[in-house]
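Sample intake sheet
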Amino acid sequence: MARGDIPQDSYHLVGVSFFILGLGTLLPWNFFITAIPYFQGRLAGANSTIVTLSTNHTGPADTFNFNNWVTLLSQLPLLLFTLLNSFLYQCIPETVRILGSLLVILLLFALTAALVKVDMTPGPFFSITMASVWFINSFCAVLQGSLFGQLGTMPSTYSTLFLSGQGLAGIFAALAMLMSMASGVDAQTSALGYFITPCVGIFVSIVCYLSLPHMELARYYLARKPSLAQGQELETKAELLRSGKVHRHDPAVPLAPDEKNGIPNSPQKAALTLELDPEKEPEQEPEETQKPGKPSVFIVFRKIWLTALCLVLVFTVTLSVFPAITAMVTSSTSPGKWSQFFNPICCFLLFNIMDCLGRSLTSYFMWPDQDSRLLPLLVCLRVLFIPLFMLCHVPQRSRLPTLFPQDAYFITFMMVFAVSNGYLVSLTMCLAPRQVLPHEREVAGALMTFFLALGLSCGASLSFLFKALL
């Protein structure tokens, strides 16, 4: 701490709380997409779960296009609430938004877990599941935007911890799936345990949020009101991804030397450090004393339009095949342990690990720079991953041939696909604030957040077309 009167983070409890809150925001998306085999089995009319489906060499039929719908209905709320956040954040108190969202997400995930024990026909089960996906991700979008608003009053260290938690959500979900499959219990109990895990995670997140007002350091910073709009929803996902998140989603990486010069090094961190970090404000004092006029959205867009378009295309390509197509790929080997664990490991776990690695690379180098025309070329080359994955070993196909049946092809494609996704997302989000004036960075961050959500939604929509072409 720079000032002696600032309280200390005793036992790092505030940092741990924000790390867990970051993990909790992207658990829903990651647990839903990782459990795609379970949902496909239920929708196929079989009373099967994760374990039994994993031993099916050909994989379950995606009768209801579950892969596509779960992706689309997870990303549309992000785009919607990115547009509505200013209204929501002015009308609803912050505590209500955060605590209310966590409670609703917990209840809906408890419903998903309870449905494991309920025998239902595929139609009603699909409708209830899709409604849950929509509402869970809607409240996740509100939750993330509100928490990022709170992080605007905190030092950048806590933003990094929060984003690190988001980045681990996908890996956590994949490991939970593998543990449930390897537990040796019956299939239904395995699925129930899998869905109870995020319920526990969300409950712990609620406890962490409620404990913040009782921590002296958190009270000190959260009592300060940031001077900017608090509604910037950043989904990594996404995080990709989250969360992407993606996800969403979107892990943070350690501070790079360039960050000392105001250059952020991860997608979410990039938008956060545009205006949210109070430690960066003194560096902008000379600009502020000149009292520049209100930034024009149109002028800022003219400066960053190519970078924004690259971000849209990166996420469009990623979400158009992941997980809608990649989750359908099965091992070409004979049925056994490897074929049982092939998709959870080679699709979900491998993607999240390599995506995290890709985002971390911008800590060490940033190439190409903002003036290079190589960036659009690299982004466009990722379109090749669409036919490559479509030509892998997907049993349920009627039009396209299988040109890459061996498992090694899919694993290689997935590694390059995930690393390039993480790196290019991080790079574009880092370059955007460098293309505008300091007082325009807040607008640039809001625009990049919107285009991030737009790319996710476009990719989810295109996944229906590519699925139909198989």
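Comment: Residues 47-53, 226-290 have pLDDT under 50 and may be disordered. The chain has 17 helices and no strands.
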